[in-house]
Amino acid sequence: MSDTASQLKKGVLEILVLYLLSRSDLYGYQLIIELDIRSHGYFKVKEGTLYPVLYRLEDSRHIESYWERDDGKRGVRRKYYRITASGGRRLAEMKQELALFFGSIKQVLEVDDGERD
Question: pTM, whole model, 2 decimals?
Answer without folding.
Answer: 0.85
